[in-house]
Design goal:
alpha+beta; eight-stranded antiparallel beta sheet
Length: 123
């Protein structure tokens, strides 16, 4: 059996842990599942459950589809803090969605409109 030096072992472990960390970050980018709907629950409004769909216009490959708005497919973008932003140009609002099931709705003037909770449900 070959003997492995301590510096070599440290280098290999660093490489492996670095790869695992990259995979975790990549997995967090797409915490929305395109086989589900996004269920948004907020005080003072009815539950809202648009589809989560694949799309090329998003940097993470996901859009929220709401055929009542224009455009129907709204690209989801990754923020530096790990949250996702989804802009609805037709209504001039955007959602900031956290992987922990929380979110906030803002208008295009960056005024907070409301907080919400979200989950994914079957289509």
């Amino acid at each position: 059996m070959a003997k492995v030096s301590r510096p070599m072992l440290i280098a290999v472990m660093t490489l492996l842990l670095g790869s695992a960390m990259s995979f975790t970050v990549a997995a967090d980018e797409v915490f929305l599942d395109t086989t589900k709907r996004l269920l948004i629950k907020a005080d003072g409004r009815s539950d809202y459950s648009p589809r989560i769909v694949d799309c090329d216009s998003s940097s993470v490959g996901v859009c929220i589809r709401d055929t009542n708005g224009t455009p129907a497919n709204n690209p989801v973008e990754l923020n530096s803090d790990g949250t996702l932003t989804d802009r609805f140009d037709g209504w001039r609002i955007y959602y900031v969605i956290g992987s922990d099931g929380s979110g906030k709705t803002y208008d295009y003037g960056n005024t907070l409109l409301r907080s919400f909770n979200w989950s994914m449900i079957n289509k």
